[in-house]
Amino acid sequence: MIDLGNDWTELLSEEFEKDYYKEMRKRLAYEYKTQTVYPHMNDIFNALRYVARKDVKAVILGQDPYHGPGQAHGLSFSVQRGVTKPPSLVNIFKELQADLGISPPGHGELTAWAREGVLLLNAVLTVRAGAANSHANIGWQLFTDNVFKLLNDRSGTIVFMMWGKNAKAKEPLITNKNHRILTAAHPSPFSADGGFCGCRHFSRCNMLLEISGVEPVNWKIED
């Protein structure tokens, strides 16, 4: 059994025993042995390790991990310290500054948001080096669909921030009227001007949380 160190361990215990997951695990074992795969296998479930379901305030859903050396570490849009910020993350920080006046940090690691209760989940949790979406059809989508269903079943308000077509595909899974959904274009330079820039999702998320009696997220990241 995979121990995630919080309530996700029990919540996902049946998921880890399903046939599709066992087959995916065999395939991943081979991939990690024969290919360069990101993130490191010990970091695959970091999004869930950092934020227990009971503590989730907001969800930022990414597509799949960054596929360059040293970038991905299991949190959507986040890169490890010392790694150049990818263009999508640069645009996220620009929107944060325009929205809340928070200056971008000198790095691109978003663990501070995770500690604030932001679940930084990718729809697909692994990728081959240099090959975006290479693990899109091995079973991860089914796994993260079920994570979303578990979030949907939780009491209390969660704000789902869905950026881009792939993220919005999971919107039908959120049927609980206690939760809130914010949608926008993806922050990629190819689409950010089409609705991400100016979306003000950070302040809107906090407003929705406060209305529901939930402590807002501190979006500031220290250097």
Detail the topology: elements first, then pairings.
Blueprint: H1 8-11, H2 19-34, E1 37-38, H3 46-50, E2 58-62, H4 87-100, H5 111-115, E3 118-122, E4 127-128, H6 140-152, E5 159-163, H7 165-168, E6 180-184, H8 201-211
Parallel strand pairs: 2-3, 2-5, 5-6
Antiparallel strand pairs: 1-4
Tell me about this structure.
- With 223 residues, this protein is of the alpha/beta class.
- 32% of the residues lie in helices and 11% in strands.
- It contains 8 helices and 6 strands; from the N terminus they run ααβαβααββαβαβα.
- The chain has helices at residues 8-11, 19-34, 46-50, 87-100, 111-115, 140-152, 165-168, 201-211, and strands spanning 37-38, 58-62, 118-122, 127-128, 159-163, 180-184.
- A 4-stranded parallel sheet has the order 3-2-5-6.
- α7 links the parallel β5 and β6 (180-184).
- The chain starts with 7 loop residues before the first helix and ends in a 12-residue tail after the last helix.
